[in-house]
Amino acid sequence: MRIEAERLTYIYGPGLPWEKRALDDLSLRIEEGEFVGLVGETGSGKSTLVQLLNGILRPTSGRVLLDGVDLTDRRKPVWKARLQVGLVFQFPESQLFAETVAEDIAFGPRNLGLDRQEVSKRVEESLLKVGLEPALFRQRSPFTLSGGEKRLVAIAGILAMCPRVLIVDEVTAGLDPRGKRDILTRIKLLHRNERTTVIMVSHDMDEIASLVERVVVLKGGRICRQGQTTEVFSDEESLAGCGIRLPTIPQILSSLGRAGWRLPVSIFDVQEAARLIAQECHRGAV
């Protein structure tokens, strides 16, 4: 599914003393099957943008097209198109409510009017997609699960709607390292195995660098920088102007570069960085 945002502007509280322009004439195109990172300082417009892409919010001006279907056209029934874009908010586990994991995941498909067999199938498939064994988790209370497991169940509830686009907004916030790793692994597998289009919003540049193919940087409701991940994270000065720091490994390599080491900045893998540093040591770089 191709997503096109055309000249989006969104104003909170228009005409009021606290009026705020969250997005300002922003245009963006995301092709089917892409894995895109959306980054920026707090207040840059990231969360507003993804809610517009999902159709939760309507723009003050401009429009959003999903495979040519205009989500902003009030004259047309666009709910089917909106269902193609699944949005996982920060701390999605707070939305869990049912007595069992299966009941929680089944809520969305049931509201689509699907029969019992199809609903059960979607529950099973969604649990497997997030790495939770149905036989072990189906009848458990979601409130007895770990933080990471709760979040995986919440994501499974979105996947049960069979979206073609998955938007995750700070999906690893508050999790321990293992929980973060589990979530990110599942999102990566969804993109690779299902060819799901993924848009990831995050303040964690290490997460973004390790996963996405393209990075879009927002500042003040506009696109400050965008391009392939290696390209964007190779330009420290440009990123600093957008209020963004390099991921950890490029930061280290950049610091060594300023000290006279001949190292590329666009390396995100720890082992590869260690190999290059060892190689420079061998050459007598210090």
Task: Explain what this protein looks like in three dimensions.
This protein is of the alpha/beta class. It folds into 2 domains: 241 residues, 3-Layer(aba) Sandwich (Rossmann fold); 40 residues, no CATH class. A 6-stranded mixed β-sheet has the order 6-7-8-3-9-10, sandwiched between helices. It has a 4-stranded antiparallel β-sheet with strand order 2-1-4-5, covered by helices on one side. A hairpin with a 2-residue loop joins β9 and β10. The chain is globular. The model has no long low-confidence stretch (mean pLDDT 92).
Tags for this entry?
single chain, about 290 residues, alpha/beta, Rossmann fold, 2 domains, four-stranded antiparallel β-sheet, about 40% helix, globular
In short:
By secondary structure, this protein is an alpha/beta fold.
Itemize the secondary structure elements and their pairings.
Layout (H helix, E strand, L loop, with lengths): L2 E10 L7 E11 L4 E6 L5 H9 L6 E6 L2 E2 L8 H4 L2 E4 L12 H11 L4 H14 L4 H4 L9 H13 L5 E5 L7 H18 L2 E5 L3 H7 L2 E6 L2 E7 H4 L3 H6 L6 H11 L11 H13 L4
Parallel strand pairs: 3-8, 3-9, 6-7, 7-8
Antiparallel strand pairs: 1-2, 1-4, 4-5, 9-10
Count of helical regions: 12
Strand order of the largest sheet: 6-7-8-3-9-10
Flag low-confidence runs.
none
| Distance between the ends | 51 Å
Question: Within the CATH hierarchy, at the fold level, what is the topology of the largest domain?
Answer: Rossmann fold
Principal-axis shape equals globular
Largest sheet: 6 strands, mixed
At CATH's second level, what is the architecture of the largest domain? 3-Layer(aba) Sandwich
The CATH class label of the largest domain is Alpha Beta
Strand content: 15-25%
Can you give the helix content as a percent range? 25-40%
Tally of distinct domains: 2
Order of helices and strands: EEEHEEHEHHHHEHEHEEHHHH
Mean pLDDT: 92
- The H-level CATH homologous superfamily of the largest domain, spelled out, is P-loop containing nucleotide triphosphate hydrolases
Content-based structural category: alpha/beta
